[in-house]
Request: fold
Amino acid sequence: MTSDAAAARATATAPGSGTGIVGDAPPADPDVFRAEVRAFFDGLPARLADAGTGIDRARAYRRALVDAGLAGIEYPVGYGGRGLDRSYAALFDAESRGRVPPEHSIFAIGIGMALPVVRDHATDELKRRFLPPGLAGEEIWCQLYSEPGAGSDLASLATRARLDGDEWVVDGQKVWTSGAQHSQLAILLARTSPEAPKHRGITMFVLPMEQPGVTVRPLRQMTGEAEFNEVFLDGARIPRDWVVGDVDDGWRMAVALLAHERVQTGVASMSNDTDERMWARVPIPVGQLVASARRNDRLRDPAVRQELAQLWINERIVRLLATRDVHPSIGKLWRTRQGRAATAFASRVEFPAGIAWEEDDEDARFVVFQTLNCRGMSLGGGTDEIQRNTLGERVLGLPREPAVDRDVPFRDLPTGRGS
Reply:
């Protein structure tokens, strides 16, 4: 191991400095908690006044949450959380709607997907290492799942991890990785037993991103943004005990994380109902659509008013789903439908000429961005077809989709990926 590699490993494995300040025992009355959250957000603008922009502002918000005991409402007190149940998290979500800094989305994968799986399935040692600094915003996470030949059929992934003494050595390629360029850590799926069928030879790891052997390359999208990346792993190393769950039980861990992802990309993504535009893959709030129709003198059109009423109903349905214990694929499907419909409405109202707009017209540029970006809502977190299959099989109990390779050892698959 080179001295540079050793230094990178030492930095990656050093415990975070987050104190994980926690709140008191659960309040007897939810109204007490609601008032606490309102007071926090009332004082937040002053707290963030000198916080800067971008990641600095996002981290300042996380630190403020830690100081207020609101950073991990459903997390155990011993790991930097508040130790409350889901009902309190729902109260926080309702009170925080439209008041969370948009820069906070940089932590969406860590807070909303990776850390919940670590909390529920990792060892106590890994929980102590990752949960407090993660909740405090000291570390940014990405998700290394999809590969060029393993998208919807994720279990066909070919990235390999082999044990070498006290470390795992990883080789392979991942793609469509959001935020990899900013991340210190990644939740990684890799194949550890090629002789097992494809679903049963996968392990979930925590990978240090800032080390030799990890190369991140941006992927430019038609919006002009480079939100996604491809990640090349060439002898990247992971400490032996940085395994989430058990070795070769990674598919079960993957499904657990995907459930959190579908919540994050479903109902949880529709939390902005302010005038501030989100240049991201989220549905345009109906309040902004109403403002667009008013600005273009279309509110008197009965067809426009009827369409706005339906979009408002759909938006409320998605938010109501957030308060109920429903399968996450339901919220994901509703959010995808709303995102496409809202963008189509905005396109017709804002510039009926379609592609004709002035470069300095921010209203039109925003709609163009959303038009190009919104189809990704149907892909991220699993396609609509995947969601419907999941609901059919796991909720309705319909027969599983036929698959001839489910019990075939991965190395014997005819695609060549197992060789």
Remarks:
- Residues 219 and 415 are 26 Å apart (CA to CA).
